[in-house]
Design brief:
The chain is an alpha+beta fold and 306 residues long. The protein has two domains: 183 residues, no CATH class; 117 residues, Yope Regulator, Chain: A, CATH 3.30.1460. Helix content is 27%, strand content 17%. It is built from eight helices and twelve strands. A hairpin with a 5-residue loop joins strand 3 and strand 4. The chain is globular and about 60 Å long. Pfam families: DUF5926, SEC-C. It comes from Pseudonocardia xishanensis. InterPro entries: DUF5926, SEC_C_motif.
């Protein structure tokens, strides 16, 4: 219970800040007033943005300490998914877990996570928040209000969900069955060494590289078009640029890979591509005719996730 008493309210609430939906209104008078406005880029302005998008959309089992601007006296960890797809959990030791992949959400994932954190700060140890709903009253905050904006996430990927169960928890047939069901659907996933927010994923029939990029879509598409026109878009022999999906305001390019190669073998090709991409992003001026054609072709390989 001591941990509960020592928890503090996050700092940084600013009801006069502009709404991230782009309406031009103050957040409190727009989305903060309860309107279900869709914030297309909920984690904008955070160095952790690519990490949060990856955790939300395709990483199966991962944890990261949440870099709060004003750290609490209990650890706060963000997780890909919690038991029951809960929004938050408070363990018996007072530590807090926030879930990225939840059952329901509002139009602003950033506000949902901040809401779940606020709930956890006053919740009893051993409790869980199934969903973030309108019952959580009070001034609306967002992750941008409570995080160190310059800090990326220090992600740890796991090959199963064993971390769901605290070490001192008692075994039971129900817990064992739940873990077995969750572990059976995990797709093997590994971070690509030396490349930020790039992940090797084995879907069972194919292997992919999925890479969350922080640039604006226009800038990234222009750079990819330049590389495509120059024949430099692939990662090497046996690879194919499959397309890209939009997720929470960012573009995630995807490559098909040779499934027979180990995940670590893609580090050097990905790092070499990263160098080429940085050079293409630094180029200015209009696209050539061939590059415009390449951009149009790449645009046909994009989908948007919600």
């Amino acid at each position: 219970m001591a941990a509960k008493k020592n928890r503090e309210k996050p700092a940084g609430e600013n009801p006069r800040r502009p709404c991230p939906c782009g309406s031009g209104k103050r957040y409190k008078a727009c989305h903060g007033a309860g309107d279900d406005v869709i914030v297309t880029r909920p984690f904008a302005g955070l160095a952790a943005e690519p990490d949060l998008v990856a955790m939300r959309e395709f990483l199966p089992s991962a944890l990261a300490p949440l870099p709060l601007a004003a750290p609490l006296e209990v650890p706060v960890t963000v997780a890909t998914v919690l038991p029951g797809a809960s929004a938050a959990m408070v363990r018996q030791d007072g530590s807090i877990l926030l879930g990225m992949q939840v059952q329901t959400r509002s139009g602003d994932l950033s506000a949902d996570l901040a809401k779940a954190l606020r709930w956890a700060q006053t919740a009893e140890p051993g409790s869980a928040l199934p969903v973030v709903g309108p019952g959580l009253a009070g001034e609306v905050t967002r992750l941008q209000d409570v995080l160190d904006a310059a800090a990326p996430l220090d992600l740890t990927l796991h090959q199963d969900f064993g971390w769901w169960i605290p070490e001192d928890a008692e075994d039971s047939a129900e817990v064992t069955a739940t873990l077995e069901r969750a572990n059976s659907v995990i797709m093997p996933t590994e971070a690509v060494d030396g490349v930020r927010a790039a992940y090797w994923v084995d879907t069972g029939s194919k292997a992919h590289l999925r890479w969350v990029r922080p640039e604006s879509e226009d800038a990234l598409m222009a750079a990819l078009a330049r590389l495509h026109a120059a024949g430099e878009l692939e990662l090497g022999e046996g690879t194919r640029y499959a397309g890209a999906f939009r997720a929470h305001g960012l573009l995630v390019p995807v490559w098909d890979l040779d499934r027979e190669m180990h995940a670590k073998e893609w580090a050097a090709p990905a790092q070499a591509f990263a160098t080429r991409l940085d050079q293409a992003l630094a180029r200015t001026g209009d696209l050539s005719t061939a590059e415009r054609s390449a951009r149009d072709a790449l645009a046909g390989k994009q989908v948007t996730l919600r």
